[in-house]
């Protein structure tokens, strides 16, 4: 899978721009602030309907505009497709080959992308929310079932939290308790199955980048015990934890149990990576998670996703950069930003950017 052409209108600092690209390494060079990362962000937004840098869609719209458009021609074993995502005050609309997709949830996953950049250090260093976002963006591209479960769970969670916030009586909460438990158990089970594949894939990627005896272990840390892994057992455990948390939830006026409290545990050589790993180890662990995501998406779809590497050369030492080049060699298209061409990488195309202007 690769994007042979990308069109932007009023996206970040681009008023209007078109980029043509072959498969292989696409090197995007320019000074800091020129708009290199914005190009990768546009591809991510087109694929997932969201940025990897902000939760506010309005931030993506050029300062003097009210709407944006991102469109790409995508080549894959399924043939050529044109994908378009528009955003304005009314919301987001996705289209495939010119036909509007009624629900954005049914559009996501048509184009698969995997980003990596300086902010990915948060996957290891930050609070559990960063790792949940990683799970959600990975699995949302891999499984529509997961997207539906995630959407339904958060809808129920918002309703239940609203009731708790206004101190609604217990009988009003009970229908939402049941829905929270059943949808939450399903989400937990889907995450557990995915994490069972993620752990070995991330460990393998880490050992390829740092072949010196260090070992990365990634495990799912759910809010609700998995028990024997059966969905019925997770439902029962969720119900018990919810009952036990009842008084504390009413005091704090928010839901304290469920997949919105999940985490991923990361250890390097049997020590908590968040607390004890060096920054170099943490960056390599984050990169390993992304490489694992790439490989698992490729395995699921039978086609490699686009790899979006934002300023990776400045974040890794020479040895790890060379290891990275070998690890991602099987990608069909890799977009790599840099202030200057990094050593050891021979691009198939070079795009120079200056103040939102593209010179391919």
Short description:
The protein has ten helices and 15 strands. The chain has 360 residues and is α/β, with parallel strands linked by helices. Helix 3 crosses helix 4 (144-165).
Describe the protein's topology:
Layout: E1 2-11, E2 14-20, E3 24-29, H1 36-48, E4 68-76, E5 79-88, E6 91-96, E7 99-101, E8 113-116, H2 122-125, H3 128-142, H4 144-165, H5 170-209, E9 216-221, H6 231-244, H7 246-252, E10 263-268, E11 271-272, H8 273-276, H9 279-301, E12 306-310, H10 318-327, E13 333-338, E14 349-354, E15 357-359
Parallel strand pairs: 3-13, 3-14, 8-12, 12-13
Antiparallel strand pairs: 1-2, 1-4, 4-5, 5-6, 6-7, 9-10, 10-11, 14-15
Characterize the main sheet. Answer: 6 strands, antiparallel
Number of helices: 10
Tell me which CATH architecture of the domain at 1-112 and 303-360 applies here. Answer: 3-Layer(aba) Sandwich
Quaternary structure classification: single chain
Strand order in space, largest sheet:
2-1-4-5-6-7
CATH overall fold name of the domain at 1-112 and 303-360: Rossmann fold
At the fourth level of CATH, the homologous superfamily of the domain at 1-112 and 303-360 is: P-loop containing nucleotide triphosphate hydrolases
Q: How helix-rich are the residues, as a percent range? A: 40-55%
Mean pLDDT: 92
**What is the molecular shape?**
globular
Low-confidence stretches: none
Terminal residue distance: 21 Å
Radius of gyration: 21 Å
Strand fraction equals 15-25%
Structural class: alpha/beta
Order of helices and strands: EEEHEEEEEHHHHEHHEEHHEHEEE
What is the CATH class name of the domain at 1-112 and 303-360? Alpha Beta
How many runs of DSSP E, i.e. beta strands?
15
């Amino acid at each position: 899978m690769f994007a042979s052409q990308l069109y932007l209108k009023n996206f970040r600092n681009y008023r209007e721009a078109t980029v043509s690209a072959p498969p292989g390494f696409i090197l995007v060079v320019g000074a800091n602030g020129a708009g290199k990362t914005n190009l990768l962000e546009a591809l991510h937004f087109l694929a997932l309907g969201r940025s990897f840098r902000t939760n506010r869609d309005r931030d993506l719209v050029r300062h003097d505009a009210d709407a944006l458009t991102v469109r790409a021609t995508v080549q894959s074993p399924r043939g050529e497709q044109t994908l378009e995502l528009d955003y304005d005050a009314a919301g987001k609309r996705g289209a495939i080959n010119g036909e509007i997709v009624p629900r954005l949830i049914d559009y996501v996953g048509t184009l698969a992308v995997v980003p990596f950049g300086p902010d990915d250090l948060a996957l290891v260093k930050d609070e559990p929310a960063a790792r949940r976002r990683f799970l959600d963006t990975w699995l949302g591209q891999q499984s529509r079932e997961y997207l539906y479960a995630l959407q339904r769970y958060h809808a129920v969670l918002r309703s239940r939290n609203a009731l708790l916030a206004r101190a609604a009586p217990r009988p009003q909460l009970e229908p939402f308790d049941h829905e929270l438990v059943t949808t939450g158990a399903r989400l937990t089970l889907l995450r557990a199955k995915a994490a069972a594949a993620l752990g070995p894939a991330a460990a393998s990627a880490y050992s390829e980048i740092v072949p010196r005896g260090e070992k990365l272990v990634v495990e799912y840390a759910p809010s609700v015990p998995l028990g024997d892994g059966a969905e019925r057992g997770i439902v029962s455990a969720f119900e018990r934890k919810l009952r036990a948390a009842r008084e504390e939830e009413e005091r704090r006026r928010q839901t304290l149990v469920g997949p919105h409290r999940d985490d991923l545990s990361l250890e390097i050589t049997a020590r908590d990576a968040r607390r004890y790993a060096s920054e170099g180890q943490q960056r390599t662990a984050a990169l390993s998670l992304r490489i694992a995501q790439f490989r698992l998406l490729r395995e699921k779809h039978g086609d490699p996703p686009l790899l979006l590497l934002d300023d990776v050369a400045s974040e890794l030492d020479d040895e790890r950069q060379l290891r990275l080049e070998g690890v991602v060699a099987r990608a069909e298209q890799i977009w790599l930003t840099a202030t200057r061409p990094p050593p050891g990488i021979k691009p198939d195309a070079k795009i120079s950017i200056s103040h939102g202007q593209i010179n391919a």
